Amino acid sequence: MDYAATTPIDPRVQRAMRPYHSRKFGNTMSLHSFGQEAKRAVEQSREKLAGLLNARSGKIVFTGSATEANNQALKGTCLANRDKGKHIIVSSIEHHSVLDSARWLQRQGFEITYLPVDHDGLVDPSTVADAIRKDTVLVSIMHANNEMGTVEPIEGIGKVCREEGVYFHTDAAQSLGKIPVDVEEMNVDLLTASAHKMYGPKGVGALFVRDGVRMEPLLHGGGHEFGLRSSTLNVPGIAGFGAAADVAKREMEAESERLIKLRDRLAEGTLGICQSHLTGHSTRRLPNLASFWFAFIEGESLVAQLDMRGVAASTGSACSSESLEPSHVLTAIGLKHEEAHGSLRLSLGSWSTRQEVDYVLKVLPKAVDRLRAISPFKGEW
User: Does 361 lie in the same domain as 212?
Assistant: First the structure.
């Protein structure tokens, strides 16, 4: 129940990668046949990913992760366009790789505007329009939130940015391969993708860069990837990313319909538990993700209880930090600290079954009851 954290590699992706671990081991910068063989594999994967994104005008730059792609998008674009201005707009629920990049830029003299979201986690395009200034360089709003699953109105936000002549970046690491992602319809200039969120290997990401976007590289060296990301390419990983994109393009629609049925069954059953609440938009959400908060219990304890019962899940509480601070995403939608600490994220994938969902619905109420029985707040519910 934690496919949003990472996914297993699809066997078809493994088969595509296997030759480039051994026999086809060339360096893409080599002129001999071994190098050119590897280069062809990279270019074929670039075309497959571009096809999944409908990227007709732009470059697919392969990176080591979505985190690196987000860093490249924000830092590279803003540093290259300092002559235009030093103002950046991000939402308050972005992934830490976007928020921390923005904070780093703030230390370099940039000014950041953090846009609010509503109770469902949605950014209103009109708030983007109101926040844009003459010195705004970049707007970065994620496509789908990794904790709640809420899908943002990216097309409308992108239209605003296009009309104002401001670069627009979206982090689609969590959405690509699950719902349609079209860089033309979405009016995006930059888009982040991740292989391991869509049944590809870990250690491979990508950044779509529209033609005409000025950008400084973060890694300098041999001039790989259009001069934007110097480093010997991870050919097996990139071959796997291309194969995963190919599978997603063929199967995404049918798989999405299957997962929506399982997700809704999971959500309906979970909301039957006393004092349970859905987080994020009820319908405008990823097909595989449902997230909740439970009154009077603590998220990490609930995850531990589920783990002992054979269920892997996650919580938004202290999501990527050793501190005891609640999730910035959940507090941004208006939850109190104690409510945010009671969060649970359940996410489905290609190997999820109705039997597994029913098992979760059998053990989850027992885990919640056990924790509430020892809760110091048990007299309040």
Answer: no
